[in-house]
Amino acid sequence: MRFEKVTHSVLKKLQRKGYNVIIAPSDCEDIENVTWKAITVPNVFEWLVALDCEGITAVPFHEPHILVIQDALNNIREEDLNGSVFIEL
């Protein structure tokens, strides 16, 4: 296990392993140095709606940082990706 800088190639590697979202705790204050964890959810849209409906994201300043891998690959430039992600070998 190790940490790797978040890049498009790392996100593609995670996607090939079946991950579709990376998350970070809400108390992370240094957005330039976020530590992400890759997870797999069955349906990203339904999962995001459930987070909102269950009130998890309704508490101000306690929303987790969420990055959908496919959205990041499609819409975020390489130089705008921040932090590192925990990779299982």
Structural commentary:
By secondary structure, the protein is of the alpha+beta class. The chain has one domain. It has three helices and five strands. A five-stranded mixed sheet has the order 1-5-3-2-4. The N and C termini lie close together (5 Å). The mean pLDDT is 86.
Mean pLDDT: 86
Find the count of extended strands (DSSP E, 2+ residues): 5
| Helix and strand sequence | EHEEHEHE
Helix content: 25-40%
Largest sheet: 5 strands, mixed
Low-confidence stretches: none
Given helix and strand content, the structural type is: alpha+beta
Number of domains: 1
Strand order of the largest sheet: 1-5-3-2-4
User: Which descriptor suits the 3D outline?
Assistant: globular
Strand content: 15-25%
From the alpha-carbon coordinates, what is the Rg to the nearest angstrom?
13 Å
As an assembly, this protein is single chain
- Helical segment tally? 3
Question: What's the topology here?
Answer:
Blueprint: E1 2-5, H1 8-16, E2 21-24, E3 35-39, H2 44-53, E4 65-68, H3 69-75, E5 84-87
Helix pairs in contact: 1-3
List keywords for this structure.
globular, alpha+beta, 89 residues, single chain, 3 helices
